[in-house]
């Protein structure tokens, strides 16, 4: 210890805490080896503020999921601190983005049955929602007939602008807000004219996700008449703890998100729902990703973490939140839609969608114009101040999707004197459609329909059109369909781990909304609505969060990995037409790169038969297998670790519910790879399971043993899956992979399926 103190004192003699006049200060996050603190300091905060940065420059001190602090320093000072013997890692604060009534039934839940029975399933479970806060007055957050708050709860209801302890109840049992990172990063600080410096939600996103996960029953719910009925979350009796980490104007910062993880674990949540991720195209390694680090700290304490897969689909390798201890959720449609057809003067009726609730056109035809006749331009995108009123006044304007918010394009049309808008997808969006609460008569159409309308407008001497708004239709087929925007695999960090893990409803989801903004979120939208309809993997994630709460309540001894396994191995792979799941962007059959293990079926997940469990030691072994050294792993795990020295472990042997065999691109000829899985019986004590193999085309898959026998004394059985492929003959296709499965049957109701992915890719 003496030598450590001498080293620290020598380091302190350098002028590292003085600002460099030529550099602007930024927020950095410092991962510190907590065990290196000299005994002369009573707390880590005293140590940090004495030896690393002035007290006034420290924003957050992290104790629970992460040891360290965030502070405002110059890049030179941050580089200087990297050399401190107690500093394990330094990373600049990074801005993240949000991955913005019928859906619970679509998960296999039925009123008054199973997990939605009259029992108190979920009432003992606490869901921590990391988002934009909450609007507590909504009916979805009533605590009527809810029992006492779980005694183990240690959280608080923080006070701030228009929010105080009276806004919490037996439903919203805690609420915090994290603004220090934002205050440091935003010039002039948070804009208090549009934000609430409190847990109150000025954006709406957090209210929507919270009520999707755990909203109470709200009768006569709708968004301006659309999707009318009873609105309720997946786990209506679960408790909510709101952690406001995102702000309407400035997004979400890693330093604040990490502080929320620290608080949520300390407070005693059981589930964390985080519909947040990168949107900058950057995929950071796990040890430089505060969401991955915070999630590991939570998962290691037995907390289930669900996250959104991102909205950058349908491009390959667009999935985000890739850590294997996080459950990553893609988005699908449900069997409800809001059709609005574009009717052309030549008699054609082209399918579209809309949530427009104003005065309809009632069949009246108007001239239709496309301002981008010469190709994509700012005018074709209907950007601000690009439309010439002389050309669009009194007409329906065709606008290309992209570069600005969809509903904002309608305002541009309105300002230029247009009477309506047809929003056309480009090739990248394909046929994927989402409804919007437009401020003028408008509908969205797919890429093919958009091209037809543009061709009509450019070729006909007097083109005219109208829009027919047809309200709400249920029973749509096929459904579910993989949303075109949903993030796709393969996993860009660890291709041996299939991501996303599964899909859940994420298109046109009705849930509670803030009173601070209208349904479009635009400042110029004066409307108020108790409920709103949104789309995104942000909406899919809380469905899985609520499902995890119900499973945790039913099986309190299950680990986060066991809960995820139960969901993944019991998914649906067919739609309501009993056909294979379809990719919305192409209209073709989807693959595990699109949907992971399949579509969540919570009814079956309640009794999965077998689960694939994963311990903290298993995750450490995985991190060793991908080339991380002990010091790098310690950044994630908080405690020192040792990696095997004799034989490097294989990342494919992580006991994941899916199986991916990755062969190097240089491989030629006949090759094999074997992975090990261990199944834990959570069903009947005496059970025999037999394997059924669906080998990918051109690949041979074998399982040994082909039969697993469980008894009262033997609850765990391991088996080996060997994948053999002749790389000279196998055709990987457009996705760069081929797909199959290994399924275990017990002869009764249990069907435990793992997708098998075979690909060629260079990895570490």
UniProtKB/TrEMBL annotation:
Catalytic residues (positions): 131, 205, 538
All residue ranges annotated as the Subtilisin-like protease fibronectin type-III domain in the record: 653-758
Peptidase S8/S53 domain boundaries: 122-578
Domain PA: 367-453
GO terms, biological process: proteolysis
Keyword entries, A-Z: Glycoprotein, Hydrolase, Protease, Serine protease, Signal
Residue span, Inhibitor I9 domain: 38-99
Annotated coiled-coil segments of the chain: none
Residues in the signal sequence: 1-20
Molecular-function GO terms, alphabetical: serine-type endopeptidase activity
One Pfam family this sequence matches: Inhibitor_I9
Family stated for the protein in its record: Belongs to the peptidase S8 family.
Protein name (record): Peptidase S8/S53 domain
Species: Arabidopsis thaliana x Arabidopsis arenosa
